[in-house]
UniProtKB/TrEMBL annotation, chain A:
Family the entry assigns: Belongs to the RNase PH family.
Residue ranges of domain Exoribonuclease phosphorolytic in the record: 45-173
Gene3D superfamilies to which the protein is assigned, alphabetical: GHMP Kinase, N-terminal domain
Stretch forming the signal peptide: none
Major subcellular site: cytoplasm
GO BP terms, alphabetized: nuclear mRNA surveillance; poly(A)-dependent snoRNA 3'-end processing; rRNA catabolic process; rRNA processing; U4 snRNA 3'-end processing
Function: Non-catalytic component of the RNA exosome complex which has 3'->5' exoribonuclease activity and participates in a multitude of cellular RNA processing and degradation events.
Molecular function GO terms recorded: RNA binding
Lineage start: Eukaryota, Metazoa, Chordata, Craniata, Vertebrata
Subcellular location(s) of the protein: Cytoplasm; Nucleus, Nucleolus
Protein's UniProt keywords contain RNA-binding: yes
Pfam family, one: RNase_PH
Protein name as catalogued: Exosome complex component MTR3
From TrEMBL, chain B:
GO cellular component labels: cytoplasmic exosome (RNase complex); nuclear exosome (RNase complex); nucleolus
Family: Belongs to the RNase PH family.
Subcellular localization: Cytoplasm; Nucleus, Nucleolus
Domain Exoribonuclease phosphorolytic, chain residue ranges per copy: 31-166, 193-256
UniProt-recorded Gene Ontology molecular function terms: mRNA 3'-UTR AU-rich region binding
Source taxonomy: Eukaryota, Metazoa, Chordata, Craniata, Vertebrata
Organism per entry: Sphaeramia orbicularis (orbiculate cardinalfish)
Protein name stated in the entry: Exosome complex component RRP43
SUPFAM superfamilies hit by this protein: Ribonuclease PH domain 2-like, Ribosomal protein S5 domain 2-like
Gene designation per UniProt: exosc8
Keywords: Acetylation, Cytoplasm, Exosome, Nucleus, RNA-binding, rRNA processing
Top-level taxon of origin: Eukaryota
Any GO BP annotation: U1 snRNA 3'-end processing
UniProtKB/TrEMBL annotation, chain C:
GO biological process, one term: rRNA catabolic process
Listed InterPro entries: ExoRNase_PH_dom1, ExoRNase_PH_dom2, ExoRNase_PH_dom2_sf, PNPase/RNase_PH_dom_sf, Ribosomal_Su5_D2-typ_SF, RNase_PH
Subunit record text: Homodimer. Component of the RNA exosome core complex (Exo-9), composed of EXOSC1, EXOSC2, EXOSC3, EXOSC4, EXOSC5, EXOSC6, EXOSC7, EXOSC8 and EXOSC9; within the complex interacts with EXOSC3, EXOSC8, and EXOSC9. The catalytically inactive RNA exosome core complex (Exo-9) associates with the catalytic subunit EXOSC10/RRP6. Exo-9 may associate with DIS3 to form the nucleolar exosome complex, or DIS3L to form the cytoplasmic exosome complex.
Protein name in the entry: Exosome complex component RRP46
PANTHER family assigned: EXOSOME COMPLEX COMPONENT, EXOSOME COMPLEX COMPONENT RRP46
GO molecular function: DNA binding; RNA binding
Record keywords, A-Z: Cytoplasm, DNA-binding, Exosome, Nucleus, Phosphoprotein, rRNA processing
Residue ranges of domain Exoribonuclease phosphorolytic in the record: 28-147, 151-215
Family designation: Belongs to the RNase PH family.
């Protein structure tokens, strides 16, 4: 591995203390109430806290907190494309970059972007692209930067919601907001908006119907802009899962709308009576 | 009208304010922006703090890991601080490996940790020559509006004060470490260094806590770090126009009072976190 | 101008005309400098302080990359190359210190939309590296004939356990010291251009160190003057 000369380096190898834990972590129950008290097999999403326009330097920004998952997104642009050869005369360019803070996961991550981060960035980009009126921004680029501050599951889904909110906050013309929701199928049952532990544990190991699903949804157009699934799922549970995710997105919709309306009201206060 | 003037002639715009002994954001020359502190908001880290100085936001997350001590200093642990200025925080930063400013800031934090002796790396040793803690102190700027060094030091100090390490024993039979995460102990912080940053405008006017807009126009910058005993841990002035002795003295005096204010703030926030639990 | 520089460098190398300032004063180690010793750069100098030695080369004013172009002044880039290995975070911080010091003394506005590159190659580090780098940088900039508003020099002071101030410490003295302070002093007003410190110290100690550095800087500036005078008296 090439050494990173642009950062302060620590020892060659170090291990997380969780590896040497005396007592192994208790296995998650695969039935009954979930660890955080939510219901299984129901549309029980975590309460969401959303704010717009926090970052002074960015054109638009948003912060989302769902349970312990915390992430923020900043939008810069539209501005001139940096690389001239990529300039498109008719259409704008959207770029998305999603990164995890090194302290965001139970195991410390590296500063260098992992392949997982790049996958997420690409999926984020593909989910957002259909919603942005890119033909209105010829020869320019719009940058979306997402930073995950704490990863407690369903990161991609919340990143999509957060990014579309930041785009809206930046005043970028869009056809619709993009909302994200994810579920985890675990055998016959499923959990909506899974936590990090739920995402990474397979409750009943031998069973087939195991997988994760993330849907990006345009609520007022009633269209799906992004769909990502991994694991092995039956056709029925997949279609059911998509339906559940869409319902989950609708649950999120009013919260996001309110946050946006609040940001707009703050930016341009209604004319006073005088 | 004012916005146009600001964009076209930023230097003249700021000069016109400084002539009246005030700043474009309504502050006086020697006035800090409001500093707010949030401790322990990241549960995936062993210690964390979020600092806001005006709009400037810096988050520090501390992750502790186990490693072998070096052969040269078998009784010491590691402190690995890194400052990141991601493209998220301002349009002036590019994606990719850290630029010069981020690297210089990282080195500055390393120097402050060493100079102030806020942490004794001997405390991080679990068993001499065999096992020690590595504290990865990752500092990330979320909103860059100037004076990121001050924010970094406060975030680091508050996060270290918030850090709890689990108890580790080495099993004599297997020679493997055993971690008891139920029993946790706090780090001992020996010194409380706090920085105060200054800018020199037009080779002569001294301003405190510059914003990003002001930073671009400054002819020199200066950061003074002091601890609670009034000792100087760092007088960092990376070039720029010269500074007279009286002005430097003024900066040091201001930095000492700033240290007291910030230490009070940190203690207050830690107290409120404790009572909330 | 360039041909002259080349000729000069040849004669300097042949005659081994390294100028050395006598070490009559115990404050500073024996120091010396050689200018125009490289033929490719527009200006070069090597500066030796005791066993510490830094080689500097200046390129420019030359064409600048569009991305780095500044419309009203020249872009200065400083690169510090360590003796072994690749530059790390520490070198980056030194680069920042040297660059901003040079920016303050150079009249960059005379060369808008152009680039200046200063490369500092560390040949040997035996303490006071940053001050030696600064001195080498200043001599190289002078050799390149770049317009400057003032000269600058670097002085390192170490405070040992007994509170004594040692100027221009060796690596061993640096290691034993309680605090280490490096200043860049300008030649016109003897004011502090740059300050970089390590270790903790009192306000009084800081002031003492600044005063000592200012005094020591006289000697270095006198050396600058003498060496330049000697060099040009031969050709003019």
């Amino acid at each position: 591995m090439p050494t990173d000369t642009k950062r302060v380096r620590g020892p060659e190898v170090s291990q997380s203390p969780s590896v040497f834990q005396c007592k192994p972590a208790a296995a998650l129950p695969s039935c009954g109430v979930r660890a955080d008290g939510r219901q299984r097999d129901q549309l029980d999403v975590r309460p969401v806290f959303v704010r717009c326009g926090l970052v002074s330097q960015a054109k638009g920004s948003a912060y989302i907190e769902a349970g312990n998952t915390k992430l923020m997104c900043c939008v810069y642009g539209p501005r001139e494309t940096k690389r001239k050869d990529e300039t498109d005369m008719k259409c704008g360019r959207l770029t998305a970059d999603m990164r995890f803070a090194p302290f965001s996961c139970p195991e410390r991550g590296s500063w260098i972007q992992s392949s997982q981060d790049k996958d997420f960035s690409l999926m984020l980009l593909e989910s957002l692209q259909p919603a942005v009126c890119l033909h209105k921004y010829p020869r320019s680029q719009i940058e979306v930067n997402v930073m995950v501050l704490e990863n407690s599951g369903s990161v991609l889904a919340h990143a999509i919601t957060c990014a579309s909110l930041a785009l809206a906050d930046a005043g970028i013309e869009m056809y619709d907001l993009v909302l994200g929701c994810s579920i985890r199928q675990d055998g016959a049952s499923y959990v909506v908006d899974p936590t990090y532990v739920e995402e990474n544990s397979c409750g009943s190991a031998s069973e087939e119907n195991q997988g994760g699903l993330t849907v990006a949804f345009l609520p007022s157009l009633n269209q799906i802009s992004g769909l990502q699934s991994d694991g092995e799922m039956t056709k029925e549970s997949l279609t059911d899962g998509i339906r559940t995710c869409i319902e989950g997105c609708y649950k999120l919709y009013p919260v996001v709308q309110q946050a946006l309306a609040k940001a707009v009201r703050k930016a341009a206060p209604p004319p006073s009576e005088s | 009208m004012a916005a146009g003037f600001k964009t076209a002639e930023p230097l003249e715009y700021h000069r016109s304010f400084l002539k009246e002994n005030c700043r474009s954001d309504g502050r006086e020359l020697s006035e800090f922006r409001t500093t707010t502190l949030n401790i322990g908001s990241i549960s995936t880290s062993d210690g964390s703090a979020l600092v806001k100085i005006g709009n400037t936001t810096v988050i520090c997350g501390i992750k502790a890991e186990l490693a072998n001590p070096t052969v040269e200093s078998p009784g010491k642990g590691y402190m690995v601080p890194n400052v990141d200025l991601p493209p998220l925080c301002s349009s002036r930063f590019q994606a990719g490996p850290p630029g010069e400013q981020a690297q210089a800031a990282s080195q500055f934090i390393v120097d402050v940790i060493e100079s102030s002796e806020m942490i004794q790396t001997e405390d991080l040793c679990i068993e001499r020559g065999k096992l020690c803690w590595v504290l990865y102190c990752d500092l990330m700027c979320l909103d860059y509006d100037g004076n990121v060094l001050d924010a970094c030091i406060i975030a680091l100090l508050a996060a270290l004060k918030n850090t709890q390490l689990p108890e580790v024993k080495i099993n004599t039979e297997t020679c493997l470490p055993e971690v008891t995460s139920e029993k946790k102990h706090r780090l001992k912080i020996y010194r409380h260094p706090v920085g105060a940053s200054f800018g020199i405008f037009d080779d002569s006017i001294l301003i405190i806590d510059p914003t990003a807009e002001e930073e671009i126009l400054l002819t020199a910058q200066l950061t003074v770090v002091t601890d609670e005993e009034g000792r100087l841990c760092s007088v960092h002035k990376p070039g720029g126009t010269s500074l007279s002795g009286e002005k430097l003295q003024e900066c040091i005096t201001r930095a000492t009072t700033r240290q007291k204010e910030i230490q009070k703030l940190i203690d207050k926030v830690i107290e409120s976190v404790k009572t909330a639990q | 101008m360039t041909s002259f520089t080349c000729d000069e460098s040849v004669s300097l190398c042949e005659g081994n005309m390294m100028e050395v300032c006598g070490s009559t004063d115990s404050c500073l180690r024996e120091f010396g400098c050689e200018q125009s010793l490289l033929s490719r750069p527009d200006g070069s100098a090597s500066f030796v302080q005791g066993d510490t030695s830094v080689l500097a080369g200046v390129y420019g004013p030359a064409e600048v990359k569009v991305s780095k172009e500044i419309y009203d002044r020249a872009t200065l880039e400083v690169l510090v190359q360590p003796k072994v290995g690749l530059p790390t975070v520490k070198e980056r911080s030194q680069e920042q210190c040297v660059r901003e010091t040079c920016e303050a003394s150079l009249l960059l506005t005379l060369h808008p939309r152009s680039s200046l590159t200063l490369v500092l190659q560390v040949l040997h580090d035996d303490g006071s590296l940053l001050s030696c780098s600064l001195n080498a940088a200043c001599m190289a900039l002078m050799d390149a004939g770049l317009p400057m508003s003032c000269l600058f020099c670097g002085v390192t002071c170490a405070i040992d356990a007994d509170g004594r101030i040692i100027t221009d410490p060796t690596a061993a003295q640096e290691k034993e010291s309680r605090a280490l302070l490096t200043f860049a002093v300008d030649s016109t007003e003897r004011k502090v251009l740059m300050s970089s410190t390590r270790g903790s110290f009192s306000v009084h100690e800081l002031q003492q160190c600044i005063a000592v550095s200012q005094k020591a800087s006289e000697k270095i500036f006198q050396f600058y003057r003498d060496s330049v005078r000697r060099r040009y008296s031969k050709t003019l």
